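User: Hey, quick favor. My workstation is busy. Could you predict this chain's structure for me?
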Amino acid sequence: MTETMDNSSPSAAGLAPDKDGLLKRILEELGLVSMYVSSRDVKLLCLQRFVRMFAYGISTLILVAYLDALTIPKTEIGLFMTLTLVGDTCLSFFLTLFADALGRRAILALGAILMSASGVVFALFGTYWVLLIAAIIGVISPSGNEIGPFRAIEESIVAQLTDPKKRSDVYAWYSLLGLVGTACGCMVCGWVLQHLTDTLQWDVIRSYRAIYVGYVILGLVKLTLTVLLSHSVESEKKQEQRRQRDDETRPLLEGNAEAAPTPKRGLRALLPDVSKESVPVVITLCLLFALDSFGSGLAPLSWITYYFKYQFNIEEGKLGTIFFVTQILAGASMIVASSLAKRFGNVNTMVFTHLPSQVFRALLGVPSDLHLALVFLVLNSSTQSMDSGPRSAFLATIVLPGERTAVMGTVNVVKTTAQSLGPILTGVLVDRNLFWVSFVASGCLKIAYDIGLLAFFKEKEREREQAERLRIQGDDE
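Assistant: No problem, here it is.
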């Protein structure tokens, strides 16, 4: 009996480590281990993104309906959307350009204040020009997508605070939380509106304004989360300047110290330093991302929902359910992309997950049968967002640390500008009953972007990864 127990003990003891090892591997593949060991600041930034995208979700669902309820003509509503994107482009470019010099926390806090301020105006006023000024100067998302200076600054901070090997995991969860935030914001907004109008018998305009009160509160929550960030989120240059101020006597004590370079003065001191080596890289990136964003603008989510509603006569409730499911699928795929990026690299993962989805995007307008069209929609959604996390990790690798915030901000500005041009052409095509052309053009442009990315940056990514590893090793020594 004792001998039997002795023989069984080693196998029983061996099962527990196997189970623990399997669980750990699963958690590592999902990126949860990377998120767990990430710094407090990174977790706060991910939470900020969820809160912000939740707010954008509730605003997007009612923005056009609110303006329409105020009896604003459709043409002026279209102008409102365009000018809002133009204002966002200018604001984002200016704030991200000077973010590292002025302080990243200060710029994020300013963005949160502008977000709440625009919500206050929308909750209190109904004049077209007042709302337009608030949307241009403030932060209101006309499409539910990321706007403002936030993402570029946050992604730059994440790159600075995260080990390069773990970046794809953290960026995947960062992107996923944003997508989930938007989906949840839309859903919660819908149910709250239904309760206010049906149960409490509020009129429509009053209900919409109540939603914007919630938008204000979410902006203040984001401001609170920004205040909780530590000084570690500031740029390395900013932190070095702070250390020098804290120890002003050191140059006097170190007689053999080398003379410090003459600091830049005036406005030049606020501008980021971009190396000559990075200029062609940034230009190529901007051209490729502009191509991708223009393709996205030809068939944005708002136009796709419109197409399915009127082409197949789908009810609003069912339509909302369909696109909620596709958003969840897109979010889940981001976690898979993180695992793939570890094995095949960011560029390969971006291209070979994004490209197939664009084939199905190009085919969306072909089927006359609803079921086949939904199959194409689901296949498009299941992989179209898989490049989000790897793309952020790729940008963090391909751009030098001191240039990240400015370059990421510039790229986002170029993307927003290119995307804003697409809906105008789509409107012309729809008027001529050529909706399918917009889908084909959108898919083809995005496929061209994938091919260009693979051609220009597959080897460049490896070179920059090796250079960054050497830099990190040098800092450790």
